[in-house]
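Q: Got a minute? One more chain.
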Amino acid sequence: MKSSEQELSVVCWIKHVEDEVVQLQRPSNERNKIKKKEQKQKVALL
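A: Always. Here it is, folded:
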């Protein structure tokens, strides 16, 4: 793997982690709304 490719994958991974941190920092009620939406989508898939 070239160093530039490795850097790209690290940048992608950092972005992913930042997204997760942002999710965790959201107010819990907003998170619950999102969870409920996801559950509804899962139920719709079943």
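A: The chain has one domain: 3-45.
Q: Perfect, thanks.
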